[in-house]
Amino acid sequence: MSAVTAHKDPKLPPPVALPEDASWVGALKLFDAHAAETLVAAARTLYPHDGLPERIYRRTVFHFDAMAAKAPVAAQSFAEFVDLVDGALPLKFAELSEGYRVQVLKGIEQSAAFRLVQRSTVRFLYDDVEVWQAFGYEGASVHLGGYVNRGFNDLDWLPDPPPGV
Amino acid sequence: MTTYAFDDEGVVVIIGSGAGGGTLANELAQRGVGVVVLEAGKHLTADDFVNDEWGGYEMLSWLDKRTSSGNWRVAKDHPLNPSWSCQVVGGTTTHWSACCYRFIADELRAKTVYGDIPGASLIDWPITLDELDPYYDLAEAKMGVTRTNGLPGLPANNNFKVMYAGAKALGLNVSTGRHAINSIPYDGRPATIQDGFTITGDKTGSRWSTLNVELPRGLATGKLELRPQSRAVFIEHDAAGKASGVVYVDGAGVTYRQKARAVVLAGNCVESSRLLLHSKSARFPDGLANGYGHVGRHYLRHLIQTVWSTFDKPVHMHRGEIMGGMIDDFVRHDPARGFAGGYYIEMNSMGLPTTAAFMDPGWWGRDFASVIEQYSKMAGIFMSGEDMPQPDNRITLTDELDAYGVPVANIHYDDHPNDLKLRSHGYKVLTSIHKAAGAKRSVEAPAYPASHNLGSNRMAGRAEDGVLDGNGRAWEVPNLFIADGSNFATGGACNPTLTIVALAIRQAGFMAGQMAAGEL
C-alpha cells in the first residue's frame, strides 16, 4: 500500500510478539479466551481494515488487557461489553456475521462500555507500527535526521510554490 | 542554582513556567529581581522527549481530572479532558506548534468595533495596539520569529504545497506564515530538521520554548530559583489584603509555604482561575480577586477546527513542521460575512495516531476505515477564530477534591450563535481550498480539547468589568498578577502565545518599575 518505512521512537518498546495461533490468549493477564476473542471481533468490526492481519487486532486487545489489569473499573467495563454484545442476539457476538455485529454495536453505542472499547481501539490500533507501515505513516524521525533530507517537500503532482512564499 | 528561604518576603513567586510564567521569570531576573518559580511538573530535557504522539501526550500533558458541561462538542467527545495544556517545566511551550501572529487593532477594541451582540460580554482591552506593538517587537526578537528581524520563513513542505495550490486558485493571500521555529540557526539554536514532532517536546531545540531559552537564561542570572514538582494549592494574604505567600506540595507530598513580595499566577487559564476560586478567606469569601464575580467567567477557547481531505496521490503531510502555512484574508471583522470577528487559516498535520483519534471521535465502521486508510494521501487545513465571551462560559469548582485537597474544576461552555456562524463559514472556506487543489473527499473535524484557553481572569479598563488592570494586576489585590492567557480581555483570532509573551515582557517592566518606586 505504501513504499515508506515506519519507525517507532527507539526509546519506546517494540510491539509485543504474540503467538500466531489461538494460544496467543496465554499472554493475557486478565481476559479469558472468550472475552479476548470477542474483543478482537469487536475491534475488527469497529475498524475493519481487511488488509490488516489478525495479530494487529490481537495486539490491540493485549493493550485492553493491560488496562484492565491496572484498573478494576476498566476491567468491569470490558466485561460488561462482552456481556452486552453476547446477549443481544441468539448467537454469541464472535459467531455473528459482520452485518449482525454492526447491528449489535449500534444498539449499545450510548453505553460507557462501548465508548471505552471504541476509544481504546482507536488509541491502540492506530498506534501500532505495523498499521503505520500499512497506511504510510513513517513516525519517529529525529533519530534519522528528521525529514529535511527525506522528502519533506517531495510532492511533485502540484506546482512548487515560488521560493520564499 | 540560587535558593531562597521559605520565609524570604522579598521574592516574587510565579506559579507556572510556560510562556507567561517562564518569560516573566527571566525578564524579572534580568532586572535583578529575586524570583521563585513553582512548576507542578517535572524538569524534563530534550533527551527525555520522544518522537511519538501518544508517548509525548502522556509525558507532557496536564492529565488531572476535570469535568465539563454545556453544549460544546468537547463536553461530549472529551468530557474529562476538556482542556489541553502541559504539566512540565516549560509548560505548554514544550508542546506548542509556534505560530506567532499579532492581534490587530480592531480586536483590542472588540466591544467598540463589533457593537452590542446579545449574550456576549465583550469589552475593549485596556491597552491599545500602539501600546502593545513595542512588546511584540521584543517578543519576536527573543523568540526568533520567522519573517521578522530578517529571518526567512519556513520552507514549503508537502502539506503546504496542497494548501498553496488551493489558496492561489481562490485568489487568497497565502504564505508559510510566521513561527518561533528557526528556519536558519538563530540565537544559539539550530535550524529545524523538519522532524514533525514539535508537539511532543522538540528534541532539537529549533523551536523557542521557555524550557530551552527563558528559564536557562533566568537561572544564569543567579536571581531565579526553579522548583519543579511543586504544586501550588493555596494563595495566602495578609491583614492588609495583600498576597503574602503560596502554599504548595512537592513531589514527595510534603507541604511548604513560600513567602512572597508579589504572587503571579501563570498556570494556564483553568488552573489560575481554579486557584483563585479556591483561595477563599473571610476577606475574600468568593475567592481571591473575585469581588465582582469575574474570576472563572468569560472563558474562551477559540473556534478551532480542522478539515482533513484525501487526494489521488501521496501527500505525506507528517513530514516537516506541522503548521507552516497561513492565510489572513478572513482575519478582519467584516459585518458583510454575517458574524463578528475573524479567523486565521493555518496548515495542520498530525500523525496517524492522533488523526484517527481526533478526526471525528465516536466515528467507526467501514466509512471511517476507508478514509483513514488514505492517510498517506491526506492533507490538513485548520482555523483559529475568535469566540464570543459569555459570562456563563466559566470555570467553577466541583464538590470533588483532587489528591491535594483542591476541588476539581468544571469547564462550562455553550456555543454562541456567532460562534456557529463563524465555524460554518470557516468549514466552507477550508473545504473549498482543498477542493480547489483536487481533494476527493473532505472531512470536517470538530474541535479537540482546548489548547487556546483564555479570558477567565480578564483584564478590563474598570474593576467592575474584569479581574485585572491593563498590567495584569488584580484590581483588588495590588501585588497579585496574572501572566497567562486567562488575562486576555477578549480572545482575538490568532494563536495566543506571542501575545502572552509580549504581555509578560510588558508586565515585567511594570513590576520592576513599581518595585524601584517602592510601591511593590
From TrEMBL, chain A:
Domain of life: Bacteria
Protein's recorded name: Gluconate 2-dehydrogenase subunit 3 family protein
UniProt lineage: Bacteria, Pseudomonadati, Pseudomonadota, Alphaproteobacteria, Hyphomicrobiales
UniProtKB/TrEMBL annotation, chain B:
Keyword Flavoprotein: yes
InterPro entries: FAD/NAD-bd_sf, GMC_OxRdtase_N, GMC_OxRtase_C
Every Glucose-methanol-choline oxidoreductase N-terminal domain range: 87-280
Residues in Glucose-methanol-choline oxidoreductase C-terminal domain copies: 389-504
Record's keyword terms, sorted: FAD, Flavoprotein, Oxidoreductase
Annotated transmembrane regions: none
Highest taxon above the source species: Bacteria
Family per similarity comment: Belongs to the GMC oxidoreductase family.
PANTHER family reported for this sequence: LONG-CHAIN-ALCOHOL OXIDASE
Protein name: Choline dehydrogenase-like flavoprotein
UniProt organism field: Ancylobacter amanitiformis
